[in-house]
């Protein structure tokens, strides 16, 4: 298992990746002690992934993720750059209409921030809601604004 640091800059902040057995095991929006420099190509790969240009070059290791959470994560990965969905919409897409809180719980436990774009999921009551990574809802707002700008999104 090795941690790699990617100084991604705005709007992402510091991004660290844990790689185990050639698969991505975790992503965090913080500098993790003992990290190695990430390959230079990963910065552009992250931007390309968020914009829907191409998938990030490492497979996500979802083996420890509970089945419903995995379905919610897969549904979140279908949300296009520059768009948002509600927790209820995400739950319905994952096969459990009415399980908005459970979908929110899955997003709160997302071990792959940015790559599984939980920042694109918002409450039905309006606003952008909470965000457990980085500097919280301020980072979520910056990510959503950046994505709308780069995608020309009208969401």
H/E topology pattern: EEEEHHEHHEH
Oligomer: single chain
Q: Indicate the radius of gyration in whole angstroms.
A: 15 Å
Percent of residues in helices comes to 25-40%
The chain-level structural class is alpha/beta
State the helix count.
5
Name the average pLDDT.
Answer: 90
- The number of strands is 6
What are its keywords?
single chain, 155 residues, alpha/beta, four-stranded mixed beta sheet, two-stranded parallel sheet, 5 helices, 34% helix, globular
Give an overview in words:
This protein is of the alpha/beta class and 155 residues long. The chain has five helices and six strands. The strands form two sheets. The protein has a four-stranded mixed beta sheet with strand order 3-2-1-4, with helices on one face. It has a two-stranded parallel sheet with strand order 5-6. Strand 2 and strand 3 (23-28) form a beta hairpin. Helix 2 crosses helix 4 and helix 3 (87-93) crosses helix 4 (100-108). The protein is globular. The termini are far apart. The mean pLDDT is 90.
Describe the structure in brief.
This protein has 155 residues and is an alpha/beta fold. The protein contains five helices and six strands.
Layout: helices, strands, pairs:
Layout: E1 2-9, E2 13-20, E3 23-28, E4 36-37, H1 41-50, H2 67-77, E5 85-86, H3 87-93, H4 100-108, E6 121-122, H5 137-151
Parallel strand pairs: 1-4, 5-6
Antiparallel strand pairs: 1-2, 2-3
Helix pairs in contact: 2-4, 3-4
